[in-house]
Amino acid sequence: MTIPSARTGSTIGSSRLDVMNFLNEVAQNYPSAISFASGRPAEQFFNLEAWINRLPLFVEHFATQNGLGLETARNLIGQYGRTNGIMCDLIARQLALDEGILCKPAQIVVTAGCQEAMNLCVTRLCRHPDDIILSRSPAYIGITGIADLNGIPIAPFVVDDSTPPAEALEQAIRNARYEGKRPRLLYLVPDFDNPTGTVLSRDARLQMIEVCARNGIVILEDNPYGMFRYNGKSVPTMFSLDTKTCVVYLGTYSKTICPGLRVGFAVVPEGEMPGGQSGAGMLDALSQAKSFVTVNTSQIGQAIAGAILLSQACSLRDLIAPVIQHYRTNRNAMLDSLAYAFSAYEDVVSWNQPDGGFFLTLRLPFEFGREEAEICASEYGVLTMPLSFFALGEDGRNQVRLAFSNSQPERIRTGIERLGMFVTARLHGRRE
Ligand SMILES: Cc1ncc(COP(=O)(O)O)c(C=O)c1O
């Protein structure tokens, strides 16, 4: 296992930011190509008018909660509002019902998507020039982008079959300290990780909590995909397993409702956190920073999200049941198509079989980077994401992220067939 050292935005960050431009350009240049590049949720389940029509449910709830008349409640929702949000009670109930997370509304700050929550946490926690972030590599582009834009280095570690995740993490901490860095936080997507689609076992979660607590490191548990499980048993969230008050939970309604809402949140633990700060102190720090960044999360967005929660008795399980079925069918179509397309290459081409989420990773016997992605788009009409685009080191060079969320089984079959043709041509070219 190779363990790269902490890298800053000035070294590889700018090329990472370029990656997004590259992908947008490829998507624009080949609009009819079948895309496995984007991990967007399926739009056919966005029920905008019906959802907006439920707004009075939240107005009533808000009025009752605050002892107001309906008109005053309506006016207050239209105004600037409370920085930490006006739907924390509903989020707390939903988390208890759907995720087994027990928290008080006062532990929550509602944010403009999970992206803002990540940004607030990173910038509040990493304030000293030596402070750094720890992350698995490959990593979600949202966290690397925040690190790069703020000039905060990320020390990556690779989770593979050769080393238990907690050991790899501990090694990364040791390396960072040896270089004079102060690891302040660990960013993780334990459930159906973006980009790899993998899940951290309960043991790995417990061990990583133990390592972080011992080393004074806060864990940011980002969980947009946990509710999208297609088979197998859920693993408890790190927040609910945490007895050391070191996990901050980041949630979002971008996948369970729709990203256009821009409603996410952070849940901060109660008690003393790593570094000696209290959970309440951390929440205040997030809130203070937020008040100068977005003032408050759109109260209209919160009112719609809140109304949806109220109409579902605060559990999103029923609402997303058909969505889950759709993603499961897509995942199955992708797995079947891969098995068919690569049946002649079983020994050299492989992929993981995720139990949920939006992504899987294909491993090829040759490097797959920007050039290969461009050839796939221009000559084969299929868009993919090289895993190296997400890598913080030299890992993932022969892997590809395939998203199956925003597609249809028929298109998935055709797209994988096209990818199979590209791989076959490449392998034959090599063998000839
Ligand atoms: C790992 C991860 N975190 C968070 C998000 C969503 O963020 P937001 O709530 O800002 O839409 C995504 C969406 O793609 C994601 O993959």
Would you mind describing this structure in some detail?
There is one protein chain. Mean pLDDT is 94; it is low at 1-5 and 8-12. The chain is α/β, with parallel strands linked by helices and 432 residues long. The protein has helices at residues 9-29, 48-53, 55-66, 70-78, 88-99, 113-125, 141-150, 165-178, 202-214, 238-241, 279-291, 299-311, 317-341, 370-380, 409-431; strands at residues 34-35, 108-111, 131-137, 154-158, 182-188, 218-222, 247-252, 264-267, 350-351, 359-363, 382-383, 385-386, 399-403. The two termini are 33 Å apart. The strands form 3 sheets. A 7-stranded mixed sheet has the order 2-8-7-6-5-3-4, sandwiched between helices. The protein has a 4-stranded antiparallel sheet with strand order 9-10-13-12, with helices on one face. The protein folds into 2 domains: 9-44 and 318-431, Aspartate Aminotransferase, domain 1; 48-316, Type I PLP-dependent aspartate aminotransferase-like (Major domain) (Aspartate Aminotransferase, domain 2). The structure holds pyridoxal-5'-phosphate. Pyridoxal-5'-phosphate (PLP) binds at residues 39, 113-115, 140, 142, 189, 194, 222, 224, 252, 254, 259, 264. Pyridoxal-5'-phosphate binds at residues 39, 113-115, 140, 142, 189, 194, 222, 224, 252, 254, 259, 264.
